[in-house]
Amino acid sequence: IQLLGAQVISWENERQEELLFLTGETDYRLQHPVRGGIPICFPTFYDNYDVDDYGFARTRMWRTEDLMDDAAFPAPPRDHAFVDFILDNMPDNFPDWPNHRFELRLRVILGPTGDLTMISRVKNVNTDGNPFTFKFAYHTYFSVSDIMATQVEGLETVDYVDYLNDHERFTEGPNPITFENEVDKVYLNTPDVITVRDRERRRTYTIHKDANLPEIVVWNPWDLEARRMSDFGDIEYREMVCVEAAAVESEITLNPDQEWTGTQRLSVEQF
Fold first, then answer.
1. Could you say which of 139, 215, 236, 249 is catalytic?
2. Would you state the pLDDT for residue 219?
3. DSSP string for residues in 155-192
4. In what order do the strands lie in the sheet with 150-153?
5. Tens digits of residue pLDDT in 117-148
6. CA distance linking residue 173 with residue 155, whole number of Å
7. pLDDT tens digit string along 40-57?
8. Residues near 189 by Cβ (< 8 Å), separated by ≥ 6?
9. Is Chloroplast one of the keywords (predicted)?
């Protein structure tokens, strides 16, 4: 986990196989988010270019915290490894998001069976009485053997917003999602459990999420967009798929002293 963005960049199974995609174009000398792993998107997502595109949380240095032990962050069992992070600010730290004092906490937990849990809490600590509104996503890049042999299950017949088609709204068909071209969709009012099935590796990733993350983003840039990205290999689109627990179409508004918590748990198994 990097302090820059509190970004998880590696998650392995018991055979020490990497489960998260990370581009081979990474240059760790640059103070820039790595393309891959699990970036945290806050307080915006994609459509507000005034706040670092996908939000400044992924581009700022966080700090580690001593054990947080409250209702949102109860102490994990002894056989779980975990680390706590915090990103907070005074209003003038982020001029593109003015007059908002916030506290964003993250706990990353690795369970004894390899499950990876992420709990985030956003709190409005404004002292001027002002509310603020934000979006949030766990921008998870899953490693796959071949995008053409990958499918996403659990989103059948679910409504979605197509970011490649002027944000128009459609309904997914009755079959699992497969990939033949660029995809950038936000699925609405989604089930709490979504799976990503890699047929060649015979591997299934499962996303378990809570009701505060009602949406799932599905993204793959395909070949043309991959060639346009300076931090992404031309054919790396074949090796990844982003399936993201999110609240990006349903924005969250917090009044002072209110807080919001969003949790996802990732698990993996062979079939």
1. 139
2. 98
3. -TT-EEEETTTTTEEEE--SS-B--SS-EEEEE-S--S
4. 63-65, 81-88, 102-110, 116-124, 259-270, 203-209, 193-198, 150-153
5. 999 999 999 988 999 999 999 999 999 999 99
6. 9
7. 999 999 755 455 578 899
8. 158, 159, 214, 215
9. no
Q: Are 104 and 121 in contact (CB under 8 A)?
A: yes
Question: Does domain 40-270 fall into CATH 2.170.130.30?
Answer: no
- Return the amino acid letter for 138: Y
| Domain range annotation of the chain | 40-270
Backbone angles phi, psi at 224, to 5 degrees: -65, -50
Q: Per-residue pLDDT tens for 82-118? A: 999 999 876 556 766 777 899 999 999 999 999 999 9
Q: What is the pTM of this model?
A: 0.95
Residues composing the chain = 271
* Whether 150 contacts 177, CB under 8 Å: no
Catalytic residue among 236, 239, 244, 249: 244
What CA–CA distance (Å, rounded) separates 6 from 87? 9
Identify whether 208 is a catalytic site residue. Answer: no
Let me know if 201 is exposed, middle or buried by CB neighbors in 10 A (0-12, 13-18, 19+).
middle
